[in-house]
Amino acid sequence: MTELTDSGTAFSDLLVEVFRLNGLLLGAGDELGRPAGLTSARWQVLGVIDHQPGTVADVARAMGLARQSVRQTAEALARDGLVSFAENPRHRRARLMVLTPRGRRALRDVERRQAEWANRITAGLDPATLRAATGTLRDLGQRLRTGSSGGGADPSDDGVDPPGDGVGPTDGAAGSSGDNVTGPVDRDL
């Protein structure tokens, strides 16, 4: 068995804390989003397309998630009138997800609560320490994406959505809302 180096041990300890924090953040995100009718998964998807419309593949790539889980959440958002799908001038099958006015209101509502929550949670913490932690997590994410960790991105992912327009039914949608996006959070909760 390979022995962990000091860096490997520190990284392994960090992973355990990141996994714990991820669960706490998803729970907090669900609580913050509930009054606006959002789960953490829905909030994450809306947050990505708030900046510009994107395909399911674009959103999945930005969030570091599988397209199928993002697709299921996107379909639930469309059913609830929070997003719509528009033609994509760059690709005829991969339609663009666009925030609807209702989706934008829900996102702004949860962002307001998130700002209050973030200010409360971080009161008394050194911003420089938080920025350093953010930088370290970004560096580690980049190493994972480029494969220097032995893992990395799926080389078969060409960025094109599988057939379908992203609004039809899917098999195995999780839960009554179809939300099942879990994993890294690109946005602050």
Automatic annotation (TrEMBL):
InterPro entries named among the record's database cross-references: HTH_MarR-typ, MarR/SlyA-like, WH-like_DNA-bd_sf, WH_DNA-bd_sf
Biased composition (Low complexity): 161-174
HTH marR-type domain location: 11-146
Pfam families reported for this sequence: MarR_2
Highest taxon of source: Bacteria
Region of interest: Disordered: 142-189
Name the record gives this protein: MarR family winged helix-turn-helix transcriptional regulator
Organism, scientific name: Plantactinospora sonchi
Lineage start: Bacteria, Bacillati, Actinomycetota, Actinomycetes, Micromonosporales
